[in-house]
Amino acid sequence: MDKLASLLHTSPATAWMVAKLVIVFGGVFSLAALWTWVERRGAAMIQDRIGPNRAALFGKIKIIGLAQPLADGIKFFFKEDLVPHDANKALFWLAPFLALVPALMGFAVIPFGRSFVSGGHEYHLALLDPGNGMGLLYPLAIGGMAVYGVLVAAWSSNNKWSILGGMRSSATMVSYEIGMSLAVVTIFMTAGGYDPSEVIKAQGHLPWAWNVVRQPLGFIVFFTCMFAETNRLPFDFAEGESEIVAGFNVEYGSMKFSLLALSEYCHLMTASALIATLYFGGWQVPFVQNPSVLLSVASFLVKMLFFAWVFVWIRWTLPRFRYDQLMHLGWKAMLPMSMVNLVFHAWRMSQGH
Amino acid sequence: MGVVVKKVELSWLDRTYVWPVMKGMGITLRHFFRQLFTPTAKRYTIQYPDMKKEMPEGYRGLHELKRFEDGAIKCVACFMCQEACPARCISIEAEEFSELNITQGFEEKRPAKFSIDMLRCIYCGMCEEACPKDAIWLRKDYEVAAYDRLAMQYGKWDLMNTYAKADGKENISGDPTPSVPRRTIAM
Ligand code: SF4
Ligand code: SF4
Fold this sequence. Notes:
The complex is a heterodimer.
Chain A (H helix, E strand, L loop, with lengths): L1 H7 L3 H35 L21 H10 L11 H17 L10 E3 L2 E3 L13 H20 L3 H32 L4 H8 L7 H4 L1 H14 L11 H4 L9 H26 L13 H23 L7 H28 L3
Antiparallel strand pairs in A: 1-2
Helix pairs in contact in A: 1-2, 2-11, 2-12, 3-11, 4-5, 4-11, 5-6, 6-7, 6-9, 6-13, 9-11, 9-13, 11-12
Chain B lengths: L11 H4 L2 H19 L26 E3 L14 H5 L5 E7 L12 E9 L8 H5 L5 E3 L14 E2 L1 H6 L2 H4 L20
Antiparallel strand pairs in B: 1-4, 2-3, 3-5
The site of one iron/sulfur cluster has 15 residues of chain B, from helix 4.
């Protein structure tokens, strides 16, 4: 790290920060791009089809279609960039970034590996060091911001259908946020803090001590809410071919559309990282007391990618909900469930567990 | 008169929604793995330019004008197919072809020109039905396409050679001199 610092003429702390930024955002971004392919291949396999397998590098090297995201990117890049005549131009341009930035930013506090000490310095494998005072409240707050991307995109394109899509997504947000927050509050309560490193430490390395076992009810609520939060099936109300043409992104094309699409996948990655951190022990390796740094990163990646795959898997299993059904679910099922979860664990803690 | 519709009673397990979801996910995962471990050749999807579907017996594809062993055309230019064709895409010009006549066991007529406009043909198979000599067949080739309209006018020699490669026969481009009697007729 010191070498990199002297190369960049900065302090090791800054160099480490830059390295982390590149690794985390580059990693999440490329994983998101890869996941567009995984999603399509997975969907195809689940439906007994084959999926995109023909895109080839230089027309020759066909690695099971892995070049597909690249080809899509090039295609999107060279498409005509249309802005509808009566659209609110500034907001129309801003919306894709409003969608993408919160989706990426939520990742900032999540530790993706064990902290280590080298050369008298302690290095934390998370963009924001523990003890920054925001902890896991930050991804939740930022996750709430994500709906602005959808809403602004919908409103600024001045199209009835897209507005309907945006309204639906903002209306549903109200109904799941509370249940989700209460589920997370329970974790903060049992962990004794809302810093991700504390949450992870409280879970330990034994799988049966992870929050998913200790708070299954909370897990179900949080997991379900994550689907609503990422705007994915079965709760993808912002979109809907059959009802509102394409949803909030009807008027979008070219690179702006691909940013909107990518933001969904970045959000998916952040959501799976959150699930892994909150309920599956983060970077903890099962049955290994003090894993090496690499092992802990690998463990985190495996957990995260598994949940990212579950997102895909569920999408091609379940039919969509109507959005009043999600409201029903949010207010009448998930809110009481997370309340029960909260009260139960509060009671248990008062009994000295 | 009203009909009482019986609603399906869901068990409490089904009403939790979580269990049915897991069952559904099990089904999709089974499909996923079955597809994943099936070699590409055995999957349902036929990857068209690389793999081709073997058409079933009786498929009505591109026509072939049949020939005898020595390469002589079987068609006798009777115009039955032209009459039968609902798309009016066959046009035939007949010719008389040698001194050898029906008393010597030879047909007297054959088509000088025989053309099918593949752009108009609807592959109905009426020509095949109508032919008294079994001289025109619709067979398995379904890749009938060309870069221009003229190339879609199949002439006599095109039609005689459409399946030459598939059957391992030689392409022919001229009528052989008839030598063997086709049949013997008691006059
Ligand atoms: S298949 Fe039908 S349309 Fe085509 S040439 Fe024969 S009779 Fe005509
Ligand atoms: S193909 Fe058959 S029906 Fe048509 S002219 Fe020849 S013999 Fe007659």
